[in-house]
Amino acid sequence: MAKSTDSLDRGPRAALNIQAVAAAAGVSKTTVSHVISGNRPVSESTRRKVERVMDDLGFRPNFFAQALNSKKSNTIALIAQDITNPFYPALARGLQTSVASADHVVMLFDAGAGHSLTRSFVDDVIQRRIDGVVVAVSNVEEELVELQQAGIAVVAIGSGLSGLPIDWVSADDERIGIDATRYLYRAGHRRIATISGPPEAEPGTGRLAGYIKTMTEVGFGVDPRLCAVADWTREGGAIAFRKLLDQAEPPTAVFCANDLMAIGVLDAAAEAGLRVPGDLAVIGVDDIDAASLVRPGLTTIRVPALEIGQAAGDLLLHRIAEVDESARRHITVQHTLITRESA
Amino acid sequence: MAKSTDSLDRGPRAALNIQAVAAAAGVSKTTVSHVISGNRPVSESTRRKVERVMDDLGFRPNFFAQALNSKKSNTIALIAQDITNPFYPALARGLQTSVASADHVVMLFDAGAGHSLTRSFVDDVIQRRIDGVVVAVSNVEEELVELQQAGIAVVAIGSGLSGLPIDWVSADDERIGIDATRYLYRAGHRRIATISGPPEAEPGTGRLAGYIKTMTEVGFGVDPRLCAVADWTREGGAIAFRKLLDQAEPPTAVFCANDLMAIGVLDAAAEAGLRVPGDLAVIGVDDIDAASLVRPGLTTIRVPALEIGQAAGDLLLHRIAEVDESARRHITVQHTLITRESA
DNA sequence: CTGAAAGCGCTTACAG
DNA sequence: CTGAAAGCGCTTACAG
Asked: How far apart, in whole angstroms, are the C-alpha atoms of residue B227 and residue B66?
């Protein structure tokens, strides 16, 4: 009788693993492992032989087994408020660019997809031992704390989440407000209005602060009749502007805290028969695609979403690599004035 | 002497794993595993005890260990041509919506981030045993084949990659061309031009085919002087339209294969002193945000990116779950005419 | 309904 | 410069 438990029938096709490579190369699993990881010196000839075999066999180390040992997933998660808002895809690209250099991959979670999936996504992130998370969504302080307690590196986008010791990246919102307001002032405007975002959070508050600071500095002071608030949308901007118009001395210029509201102002201005920039100057913030598509083209302040993503990735990689917990870090990205026709 | 290798010093804090849960609950690892997976019945009282302990300890099963055994990563990858093009974020959202229902997570790869990272991303996908991939990028036939050979489910977006036996999702491009052209015809236009995309690939060819079919059907035939080609960009659309204008009998209507080119036509028309829709009717495809922002508002055919993403996710989940390899599947999503001012 | 034990494919002290 | 072996934290036949 032939020995039936021989090399012939070890199941459905021998698995292609480190053991198979070791056998084919005539070395130990240990050595193959070190050729892959580079964690200890291997003689030139051995290395070449092993690499040759891996190539011939088309071997790729099993990621799960590697991660199970190393406790590193080489994965970064992005939790985005609303991926269909052009700011976030640009941020995602910047993030990918940054972390790809360290061989990390990006997992996307779009909170705008509805449901309260955010909760379960945080669980996923923890369970999958994601190395770091970029949190670009509001009102998730609780989840942030949980992520940190699970030992995951976290960086917040846009606002500092007061009190929490987490890294964050943002534009210099007050400076944006100052630059926009000064630009209108220097163009000769004296009744300058602002339409800011809802007062509860950055970046709305910072931009408004910059407006107030500038109006005070140049000696105009702040006239409450020139300060409107809207909800970041085009329609909201139009509504707010109609109210601003409805007074004895209407403004000749408006600083809007984002482009969408500024476009709403353009709508309402056209409706009211005002010519832009002749009768009314308008400036926004963001430089979304539409800013260059509307007529007249919208003058705006560009917030570099791509750079924000990159900075977030850099902070994360740094935090992941470092041994001692160092202090909280904050990166501020630079904005740029984009001059078009509206102001 | 006290027994020094006692329960006191088993290293830096005992690991929180299935073994620890088993011990605390007074059952075996096997049982804990089955409580988690539901792979075999567990008595009601035991299940409750184990769940209680997991909750108290804050235990979450280690994803890598699970995946190492099950060979499932519960992860879907999206390879997007250009995540800053609004079509892709919407697709990503639809994909997430679909796969989240099966507890899968989305990994994003933006091919537009530059470099030829696509190559290394494909390697990552294989190595990480990603369950399925949505390929929304062109010229990667080689990589597609490789992914399939690695046993990964693949679905292509937009075009069928002739010959390859892979599932795909697309709009009905010929029908889009027909609907757009007929709309212009019914509005009374007789000299209808088209600006199509580069001829080498869908969706350009399909939309052009629809235009040709309709022009033939209504008896006009195809006049080469009315057929222009551009590169999908705004500037390209403007350039192409200037050429169309430069003839004895210029068109009174233009069907553009995407919105960006249609907006370029609006630019060039304004420049040439043509009023839209009075002197010229323009229709695009996609319904990007900008379509509603330009003046006059762009009439267009909406391609439901979100639904495409969902359909892709559904195909993938189906393909992953199924045992026997069934035939290639193709899903066509429905488009809608969005009437604004330009036509 | 439940357990003991082998195994998934790696990494990493320990030893030479 | 290289190996044997224990271990990472699960799942799953096999057995009762």
From this structure: 57
Alpha-carbon gap: B310 to the closest alpha carbon of chain A (Å): 12
- Statement: residue B196 has pLDDT above 90: yes
B258, B285 Cβ separation under 8 angstroms: yes
Q: What is the DSSP string of A62-124?
A: -HHHHHHHH----EEEEEES-TTSTHHHHHHHHHHHHHHTTT-EEEEEEGGGSTTHHHHHHHH
Chain A contact set for B115 (CB, 8 A): 100
Q: For tokens 């002497």, name the residue.
A: B1
What pLDDT, in 10s, does the model give residues B111-164? 988 756 677 788 889 889 999 999 998 778 888 888 888 889 999 998 756 667
- Which chain B residues are closer than 8 Å to A93 by Cβ? 83-84, 110, 112-113
Closest CA to B86 of B309, B257, B262, B330: B309
Instruction: Let me know: does B125 contact B276? Beta carbons within 8 Å.
Output: no
Q: Which fold has domain B173-302?
A: Rossmann fold (3.40.50)
Poorest-confidence range of A41-55, A91-105, B10-24? Answer: B10-24
Please give the class, per CATH, of domain B74-171+306-334.
Answer: alpha beta
| Tokens 């989305």 found at | B106
Bridge partners, B110 (sequence order): B80
Topology of domain B14-61 in CATH is 434 Repressor (Amino-terminal Domain) (1.10.260)
CA B125 / C1′ C4 distance in Å: 36
pLDDT for B227-279, tens place per residue?
A: 999 988 889 999 999 999 999 889 999 999 999 899 999 999 999 999 989 99
The 3 state secondary structure assigned to B50-75 is: HHHHHHHHCCCCCHHHHHHHHCCCCE
| Closest residue (Cα, C1') to D8 | A69
Q: Look up the protein residue whose alpha carbon has the minimum distance to the C1' of C8.
A: B69
Helix axes B44-57, B29-37, angle to 10 degrees: 90
Report yes or no: B180 and B211 within 8 Å, Cβ to Cβ: yes
Tell me the per-residue pLDDT of B29-53, one tens digit each, with 9 for 90 and over: 999 999 998 888 888 889 999 999 9
The whole-angstrom distance between A90's CA and the closest CA on chain B is 6
CATH T-level assignment (fold) for domain A70-171+306-333? Rossmann fold (3.40.50)
Q: Which ranges of B130-172 would DSSP assign to H, the alpha helix?
A: 141-149
